[in-house]
Amino acid sequence: MSKIILFDGVCNFCDQSVQFILKRDKQEQFNFASIQGDAGQELLKINHVPTDINSFILIDGHHTYFKSTAALKICKELKGAWKLLYGFIIVPRPIRDFLYGIIANHRYKWFGHKQSCTLPSPETRKRFL
Description:
globular, protein-disulfide reductase activity, alpha+beta, four-stranded mixed beta sheet, 40% helix, DCC_oxidoreductase, DUF393 domain-containing protein
């Protein structure tokens, strides 16, 4: 079973993060779903994700990860030196999530947002739910 990343489809920073992952996920382990889409909404319900979560979400089998833990687990699977970022998992989660929250809470202000989700390219469309 593939790993699924749920992301904010109207957030420019989140969109760029998805593009970043696509370029470095050479084994195509990750599939993607916008939180705003039907598939994303269904996955949120199935995995009992709190409605107020402000985060990338990683669903890996029966495990669901949020915030900095999701980001670090994703980095661990990417090609290149990005794997090394997983070492930050030793930092206590409240500290990691605090720093993650600063970016998450200001992402629209700092990076902007769009009116609708970007359509994936034909090459990557199969990886979007």
